[in-house]
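Please decode residue identities from the backbone states below.
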């Protein structure tokens, strides 16, 4: 739906960066404009979404950040030793630091990841915008309330009915918003509070008919209220409600038709016999069907055909399932089933709301994968390692194999970083094959860590480490690129549930250091022959 143009400014006397960035194809919905300068340009800094600085230390990262847009991505280039001497404030000012000299492939990979991150952030922003737009497009009142009864968020229709601005309504209670006295027992506040307490007790969507006094007199609202439950699945944070003013409507059928067609979600209505009575236009769009093919069908038969197995329950307690459509596309829909009562509280049917969560689940999956994995090798990253230990360690024995490639710097210096990256990727593949049941992570550079939880003898670890060393050397000799490449392994183990994991890592690192000193291409166990 959206189209975004990124202005990328490269301040450098070296043409490698600009040439490499220009060759990168833009992602979907994005276009690139690459501008190169050999001298500082304040206006260009202010106008750019991505700034790559390679003009020495005339301007430090913190000063550069002050000249850029707040949301701009700042990449600061320089020699590793010089960057390492920066103060913390300078290191925090830039989004990335690139060591010199430059390698085209490394520049390409880094920029592609930056573009993906920018797109992901923009997609998340657009998703929030879509939600806000959907709320404001409703002709019915919609509000979100905290537990104390204050209004946290309302839509335009709500403001129109109460005659107050969104800013004036936010944070206020029932009496202030509707302009009634707290002493007036017929002001509708008690009924409103009672219905919200019922919703929170039932922990599901309920339907009410409520009378509210306002400046225009008494109004009758048909409301649908739902509890807002925290991510723990237990704590109730407040309620969300949709209210339709039915004071002037002649009959229920008119109200239902208006509600069905005004909602931005797919809606299906069926009676107490289970026959489908009505669907809205959004339903026809979601399921790519005509309502004449749906009406009067048995609901359970239809839903069994429409949705694929298995169906899951999400964190909010709603069913989610996949729908395969005639055009071969797939939607992930969240299903809300709400009972409809008549004025005497008899069940007369159900209102089913289908919400499209395809984009949300895709974004969640991408974000989770990005935050937990190393972009180059696909292994788990350091952050995920600590989370894994925290969630799974309990009282189990912890075994660590700290792995470092021998003379890896020489590979980079001799063959270039592209070959170096290929070596790291291939090493990761051998590790995953050799330790299929274990947690394998890349700590950084050419350092890897294999984690095993549970009973395991040191002898078993030694055998597996030895097998891995033979396999990694055989693999790279067969590849013919780095015939001298090998690895060293440091082994550490502890059954003490109270030992700090960083201390155990340090022990495995010490064992690794001894393996290096003893000639490389071998393993050593912490505590043996110390």
């Amino acid at each position: 739906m959206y189209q975004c143009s990124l202005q990328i400014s490269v301040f450098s006397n070296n043409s490698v960066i600009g040439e490499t960035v220009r060759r990168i194809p833009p992602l979907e919905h994005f276009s690139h404009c690459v501008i190169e300068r050999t001298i500082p340009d304040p206006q260009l800094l202010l106008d750019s979404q991505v700034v790559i600085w390679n003009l020495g230390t005339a301007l430090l990262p913190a000063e550069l950040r002050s000249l850029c847009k707040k949301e701009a991505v700042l990449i600061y280039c320089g020699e590793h030793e010089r960057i390492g001497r920066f103060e913390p404030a300078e290191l925090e000012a830039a989004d990335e630091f690139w060591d010199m000299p430059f390698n085209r492939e490394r520049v390409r990979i880094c920029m592609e990841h930056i573009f993906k991150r920018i797109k992901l952030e923009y997609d998340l922003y657009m998703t929030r915008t879509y939600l806000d737009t959907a709320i404001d497009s409703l002709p019915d009142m919609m509000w979100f309330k905290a537990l104390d009864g204050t209004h946290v968020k309302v839509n335009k229709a709500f403001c129109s009915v109460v005659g107050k601005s969104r800013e004036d309504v936010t944070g206020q209670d029932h009496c202030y918003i509707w302009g009634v006295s707290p002493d007036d027992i017929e002001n509708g506040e008690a009924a409103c509070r009672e219905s919200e307490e019922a919703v929170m007790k039932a922990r599901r969507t309920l339907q009410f008919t409520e009378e509210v006094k306002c400046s225009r007199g008494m109004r009758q609202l048909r409301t649908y209220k739902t509890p807002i439950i925290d991510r723990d699945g237990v704590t109730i944070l407040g309620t969300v409600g949709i209210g339709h003013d039915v004071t002037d409507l002649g009959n229920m059928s008119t109200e239902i038709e208006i509600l069905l067609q005004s909602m931005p979600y797919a809606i299906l209505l069926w009676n107490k016999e289970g026959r489908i009575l009505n669907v809205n236009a959004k339903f026809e769009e979601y399921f790519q069907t005509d309502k004449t093919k749906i009406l009067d069908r048995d609901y359970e038969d239809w839903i069994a055909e429409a949705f694929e197995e298995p169906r899951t329950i999400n964190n909010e307690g709603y069913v989610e399932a996949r729908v395969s459509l005639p055009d071969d596309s797939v939607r992930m829909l969240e299903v809300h089933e709400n009972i409809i009562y008549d004025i005497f509280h008899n069940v007369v049917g159900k209102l089913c709301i289908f919400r499209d969560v395809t984009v949300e689940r895709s974004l969640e999956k991408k974000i989770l994968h990005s935050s937990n994995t190393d972009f180059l090798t696909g292994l788990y990253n350091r952050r995920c390692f600590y989370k894994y230990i925290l969630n799974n360690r309990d009282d189990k024995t912890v075994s660590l194999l700290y792995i470092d490639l021998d003379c890896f710097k020489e590979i980079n210096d001799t063959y270039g970083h592209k070959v170096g990256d290929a070596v790291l990727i291939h090493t990761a593949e051998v590790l995953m094959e050799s330790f299929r049941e274990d947690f394998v992570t890349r700590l950084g550079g050419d350092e890897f860590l294999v984690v095993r939880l549970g009973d395991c003898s040191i002898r078993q670890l030694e055998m597996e480490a030895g097998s891995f060393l033979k396999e990694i050397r055989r693999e790279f000799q067969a590849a013919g690129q780095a015939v001298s490449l090998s690895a060293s392994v440091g082994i550490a183990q502890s059954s003490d549930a109270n030992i700090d994991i960083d201390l155990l890592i340090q022990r495995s690192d010490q064992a690794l250091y001894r393996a290096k000193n003893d000639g490389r291409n071998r393993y050593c166990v912490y505590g043996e022959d110390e």
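Observation: The mean pLDDT is 86.
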